[in-house]
Design a protein that fits this description.
By secondary structure, this protein is mainly beta. The chain has no helices and six strands.
Length: 72
């Protein structure tokens, strides 16, 4: 997605099996994942990441996603 300060939708290169399998960083700061606390910075549906209104990345921000493989 376009990092313009108002866009809330971004698309991942790969679809995680669960939202707990990724970590999202904005300008090096880890974002609060869904279902960890009562507050969350984003939600994940398929390969789409939706930032909450209060957590929209500002224009020019660097977004990085780390995929965490869960091995059973």
């Amino acid at each position: 997605g376009v990092v313009n300060g108002s866009n809330t939708l971004f698309t991942l290169a790969n679809t995680p099996f669960a939202s707990s399998e990724i970590s999202i960083f904005v300008n090096g700061q880890l974002q609060t994942p869904p279902n960890l606390t009562t507050y969350q910075d984003y939600s994940v549906t398929g390969s789409n990441v939706y930032f909450t209104t209060g957590s929209v990345p500002t224009q020019g921000s660097l977004l990085l996603t780390m995929y965490n493989k869960v091995v059973a």
